[in-house]
Amino acid sequence: MDDLAFGGEGVGRADGYVVFVRGGLPGDRLRVRLTEARSRFGRGVIEAVEAPSRDRVGAPCPYFGRCGGCRLQHLDYPAQLRFKAKQVADCLTRIAGVADVPIRPIIGAPELYGYRNKMEFTVARAAGGTVVGLHEADRYDRVLDIERCLIQSDVMNGLLAEARAFFAERKLPVYDQESGEGLLRFLMLREGKRTGEAMVNVVTSAPQVSELAPLADRLRSRVGQTASVILNVNPKKASVAVGVEEHLLAGRDHIREALGGLVFQISANSFFQTNTLQAERLFTLVEESTELTGSETVIDLYSGTGAISLLLARRCRAVYGIEVALAAVDDAQRNAKANGIENCTFLSGEVRGVLPQLIARGVRAEVVVADPPRAGFHPKALRALALLGPERIVYVSCNPATLARDLGELARGGYRVEWVQPLDMFPHTPHIEALARLSRL
Ligand SMILES: C[S@@+](CC[C@H](N)C(=O)[O-])C[C@H]1O[C@@H](n2cnc3c(N)ncnc32)[C@H](O)[C@@H]1O
């Protein structure tokens, strides 16, 4: 194997023919069975590792290889970081077409396991009974029963075990995606890493409050950190863990998390960064990169639940956050209030529509921070940003390919890309986060 592809599959060659192999690592010599053969490349599965890569390690998780979650546990962590840094560098060279952008050494995660503050498990029916777990790799119709997940904390594993036992003991019917019958759909767990408060959110197809209420008593008596037990009802076919109505079974309707000196209220359906400790590092970097002196106006594009806006609000005159999801805007406003922050305005709508409106109203900003979804900027949003012409742009990205595309556009539009900082938010997964700082020429 020569390399790892974007999604973490090994890339090798047999007589010049390129083959993608799940689980293959650079430096491995493998015997592979071809499962798909196209004219330019094929796919294969490992039959034997004839000579392992120097970076191959034993994966600690018993579900590794079958679970769709962590695909790179068998790659030593320093090698995972090298892979991620290389992906960022490759994208900048291939896609951005901006020469000589300094790429800072990648920042590894402070915790390699137990780092997630949110997990979403699917409840499914299997031959042996009810399973509560994660989808198998590339098999969205199959759910693996997960007794203990290593990327969540012991408290969350305790809640998972209690909920699983309760579902089985009570013989609660499991929702069937085909027929639309049955009750239990998802079990979502959240935890404030800094506050220790935990949330259990059971997503069902119907509001069977009396059937689920005893779960709240059980969890509260057996797992002391349980601060919130919620029932979300999703009667629709769409297989999502977001309900149309919510019932509070015990405690508060939210948990709290502390980050960067602020306290955030997180409800069942709120977005919040899923790796608290590394998000805090990322946001500190954002804060430093903005170099605010107190007099600036900042626009936070794709502001989500407002974490970046609220953290920057302490260091500037005013912040405008733009976010399409109404629920996230509500959360951002609530969090501003809870933290006594009065210089943030959150606007709902798409950046490509709202940013031109702000400019038309005469709003100007010295600094823009952007944290778009994987697709990056819409061309109209990028044009509006160029029209606004802030002195500095700090771009946070979870997709190096769209980051590189947008940096290329901004570089052609009069910005210098000063540096790019890769950072690992999700050890053992192929996800790559990066931050770029640009200044107007
Ligand atoms: C990576 S998240 C940003 C999270 C944010 N920094 C936080 O910490 O809460 C991207 C956000 O962009 C929002 N979004 C997606 N498309 C959008 C668009 N066209 N206009 C505005 N917001 C959008 C999503 O709803 C999501 O909240």
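^ S-adenosylmethionine complex. The chain has nine helices and 21 strands. The domain at 3-56 is CATH 2.40.50.140 (OB fold (Dihydrolipoamide Acetyltransferase, E2P)).
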